[in-house]
């Protein structure tokens, strides 16, 4: 009996899309990524491959070959759901499975012969389970995972490799089944190595000397040798606590009394797994037969039942059920809780319980999209900021904490300018603060930028009108021409000017080079 | 007189001044000092005027700043400050009212003063004029002193420095020191940096 099976779904992204839309199975389908006009094909189904469409051609090229193509984008949710479904299918056959890659699951088949029969029967069972969750899969069975993986790609529904005959059975398979990278593929083609057997016959030391660690991995695969340990996949635990009620509850206080033990049990389970709740789903069964569902998105991961109860109460006060309650269920979405202890000399941070309550109240006050920690987007776009979850971490023992990438960029930029790579700058030659980025002049941004009228004179702004008032421009520095994302509809191109107005105000004004409109971007303060 | 002497735990500090007087730069310096020390800070932004990129360049650890954007709603900003002032653990809670500072009744100011005294939070109020009255332990006024530009006088190329006179106009517990002059440097922005690359 072979020890391992490999459950393989060819063209997994396309299969994930077909699983959601079964009608697409018979039609040529391409899965694309990127934004137009630079969209590229990342996966195709069998019908499209027959027509000569293959990755990584552009969508335009693909459409030139077949105008009947159906295009879908690569949705992360569908892909993740499909992958979990494939793992579930494998778990229906064996309790020990390994999540190898998207669309590839290794299954430990030791002892399954007493349940399903010989190796081919186990393989057929796996194919049937995969079909039940919407996939057309192939299965390879062998003594090692590497050999099973190659066998699964041979194209037959079930391929069984006898023990000790791996090299003979797989020798004729194309070397491309081992998924070498582009450079290695070209090298192997130059060497004339086309099959797995030819690769396995190459001297191992010479292969490592020429191809490095990647060559070693390929040789192991070709010889059917497993080096990595089997990493068993454990399905995520479902954290739910429910409570039936023998009488009808109509007040929030009484409901809180029922919710408290349910939340305490839930938090005890989370604590046992060193987890905290990120999102809490509360489902109330009503006497009318309906269900009142509320999702409490926690601003901070919590494992404290009292704090959770407070937040649930606040939410139910704002969105009460429309009938008496006869049953409650709470489901927590667990996240790994961060353990840490502040140093003796480090400043204290807000207590998690109080912080979560304050963040929830602030979110209710100004909206959840308006509360959080500022986060810089990796873009040259003006005002590249967004909000992310506020979750200050304890400073590490070296006292440095995490150094943000933008601060590093700012530091390197400053060093570059200070080192004299910038334009001649008499005032900049004056002594500067030692720490460099300290004492940086702040800009007060106007969101959205205000439209202004600018009078132009001698290649520079001479006056501007804003809010019905006219200001004379005393000094103007610029233009600083910036542009970006010209390949996209969200591209921008503009000239920036720093101007001093007659009343002493220092402004940043911008000219949109695409529309010709002037706007007030911000005020230095 | 340094930045740390402006911001005191358990007390209210007011920073007032007109536009381009350096008041926001002074506030950013306070946020920078708090976050670099590993503490958490909160900024209630009534005008939605906070420049995150500039703050990061100034050395503020953005992951330690709670930014509350109030969309020009002064009443929401006041209620947000009321919540944050009672939450111990924040080293600095700053509220930026910008040009249109709301009326702050004496009772509200004293309620905030009691709240920050209990929570040991340093509350910094930034506006164009003083609004906390006797509730503030310290009031700082910034006045623009000079602006430096790079390049020849008739064809300047870059704004380089803003110099401001910072004076304490009210100090409840200590004698009022003489004004000092502070300078803030204009960094090249992200897109402008491309010219230096």
Explain this structure.
The complex is a heterodimer of chains A (525) and B (197). Helices cover 32% and strands 30% of the residues of chain A. With 525 residues, chain A is of the alpha+beta class. Chain A folds into four domains: 4-160, MutS, DNA mismatch repair protein, domain I (3-Layer(aba) Sandwich), CATH 3.40.1170.60; 171-223; 239-336, 2-Layer Sandwich (Dna Ligase, domain 1), CATH 3.30.1490.100; 443-524, no CATH class. In chain A, a hairpin with a 6-residue loop joins strand 2 and strand 3 (40-44). In chain A, helix 1 packs across helix 4 and helix 4 (76-91) packs antiparallel against helix 6 (119-132). Chain A is extended and about 90 Å long. By secondary structure, chain B is of the alpha/beta class. Chain B has helices spanning 3-6, 23-36, 52-57, 74-85, 106-119, and strands at 12-17, 40-45, 65-69, 90-98, 122-127, 138-150, 158-171, 180-185. At the A-B interface, helix 14, strand 13, helix 15, strand 15 and strand 18 of A face helix 2, helix 3, strand 3, helix 4 and strand 4 of B. Strand 13 of chain A pairs antiparallel with strand 3 of chain B, so a sheet runs across the interface.
Number of domains of chain A: 4
Global Rg of chain A? 31 Å
Number of helices of chain A: 15
- Give the end-to-end Cα distance of chain A, rounded to a whole number of Å: 77 Å
Helix percent band of chain A:
25-40%
The strands making up the biggest β-sheet of chain A line up spatially as 15-21-20-19-18-17-16
Tertiary shape of chain B: globular
CATH architecture of the largest domain in chain A: 3-Layer(aba) Sandwich
Mean pLDDT of chain B: 87
Largest sheet of chain A: 7 strands, antiparallel
**Which structural class is indicated by helix and strand composition of chain B?**
alpha/beta
Largest sheet strand order of chain B: 3-2-4-5-1-6-7-8
Tell me the number of structural domains of chain B. 1
Outline type of chain A: extended
By secondary-structure content and strand pairing, the structural class of chain A works out as alpha+beta
How would a textbook summarize the main sheet of chain B? 8 strands, mixed
Largest interface: A-B, 83 and 82 residues
Approximate helicity band of chain B? 25-40%
User: What proportion strand of chain B?
Assistant: 25-35%
């Amino acid at each position: 009996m072979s020890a391992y099976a490999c459950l393989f779904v060819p063209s997994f992204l396309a299969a994930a899309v077909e699983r959601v839309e079964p009608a697409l199975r018979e039609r040529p389908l391409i899965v694309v990524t990127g934004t137009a006009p630079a969209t590229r094909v990342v996966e195709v189904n069998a019908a499209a491959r027959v027509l000569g469409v293959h990755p990584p051609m552009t969508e335009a090229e693909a459409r030139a070959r077949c105008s009947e193509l159906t295009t879908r984008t690569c949705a992360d949710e569908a892909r993740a759901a499909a992958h979990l479904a494939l793992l579930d299918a494998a778990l229906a056959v064996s309790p020990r499975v390994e999540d190898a890659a998207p669309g590839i699951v290794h299954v430990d088949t030791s002892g399954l012969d007493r349940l399903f029969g010989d190796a081919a029967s186990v393989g057929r069972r796996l194919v049937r389970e995969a079909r039940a969750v919407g996939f057309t899969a192939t299965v390879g069975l062998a003594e090692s995972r590497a050999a099973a993986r190659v066998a699964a790609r041979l194209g037959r529904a079930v391929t069984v490799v006898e023990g000790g005959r791996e090299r003979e059975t797989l020798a004729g398979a194309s070397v491309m089944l081992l998924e070498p990278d582009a450079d290695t593929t070209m090298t192997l083609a130059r060497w004339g190595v086309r099959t797995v057997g030819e690769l396995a016959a190459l001297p191992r030391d010479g292969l490592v000397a020429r191809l490095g660690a990647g060559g070693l991995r390929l040789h192991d695969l070709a010889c059917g040798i497993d080096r990595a340990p089997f990493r068993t996949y454990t399905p995520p635990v479902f954290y739910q606590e429910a409570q039936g009620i023998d009488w009808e509850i109509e007040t929030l206080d009484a409901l809180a009394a029922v919710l408290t033990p349910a939340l305490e049990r839930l938090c005890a389970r989370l604590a046992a797994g060193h987890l905290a709740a990120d999102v809490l789903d509360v489902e109330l069964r009503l006497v009318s037969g309906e269900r009142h569902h509320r999702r409490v998105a926690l601003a901070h991961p919590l494992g404290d039942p009292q704090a959770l109860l407070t937040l649930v109460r606040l939410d139910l006060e704002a969105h009460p059920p429309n009938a008496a309650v006869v049953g409650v269920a709470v489901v927590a979405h667990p996240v790994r809780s961060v353990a840490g202890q502040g140093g003796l000399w480090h400043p204290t941070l807000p207590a998690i319980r109080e912080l979560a309550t304050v963040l929830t109240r602030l979110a209710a006050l100004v909206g959840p999209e308006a509360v959080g920690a500022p986060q810089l987007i990796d873009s040259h776009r003006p005002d590249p900021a967004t909000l992310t979850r506020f979750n200050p971490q304890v400073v590490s023992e070296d006292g440095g904490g995490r150094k943000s990438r933008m601060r590093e960029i700012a530091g390197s930029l400053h060093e570059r300018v200070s080192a004299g790579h910038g334009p001649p700058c008499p005032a900049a030659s004056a002594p500067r603060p030692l720490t460099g980025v300290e004492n940086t002049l702040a800009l007060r941004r106007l969101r959205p930028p205000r439209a202004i009228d600018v009078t132009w004179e001698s290649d520079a702004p001479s006056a501007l009108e804003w809010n019905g008032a006219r200001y004379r421009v005393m000094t103007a520095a610029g233009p600083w021409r910036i542009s970006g994302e010209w390949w996209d509809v969200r591209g921008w191109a503009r000239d920036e000017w720093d101007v001093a107005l007659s009343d002493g105000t220092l402004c940043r004004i911008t000219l949109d080079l695409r529309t010709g409109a002037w706007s007030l971007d911000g005020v230095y303060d | 007189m340094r930045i740390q002497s402006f911001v005191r735990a358990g007390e209210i500090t007011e920073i007032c001044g007109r536009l381009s007087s350096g008041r926001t730069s002074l506030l950013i310096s306070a946020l920078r000092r708090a976050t670099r020390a590993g503490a958490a800070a909160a900024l209630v932004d009534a005008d939605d005027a906070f420049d995150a990129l500039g703050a990061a360049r100034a050395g503020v650890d953005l992951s330690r700043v709670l930014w509350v954007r109030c969309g020009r709603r002064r009443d929401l900003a006041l209620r947000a400050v009321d919540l944050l002032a009672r939450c111990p653990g924040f080293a600095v809670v700053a509220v930026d009212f910008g040009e249109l500072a709301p009326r702050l009744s004496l009772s509200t100011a004293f309620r905030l003063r009691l709240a920050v005294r209990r929570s040991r939070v340093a509350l910094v109020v930034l506006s164009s004029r003083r609004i906390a009255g006797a509730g503030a332990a310290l009031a700082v006024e910034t006045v623009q002193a000079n602006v430096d530009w790079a390049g020849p006088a008739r064809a300047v190329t870059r704004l380089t420095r803003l110099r401001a006179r910072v004076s304490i106009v009210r100090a409840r517990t200590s004698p009022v020191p003489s004004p000092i002059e502070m300078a803030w440097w204009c960094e090249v922005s992200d897109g402008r940096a491309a010219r230096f690359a």
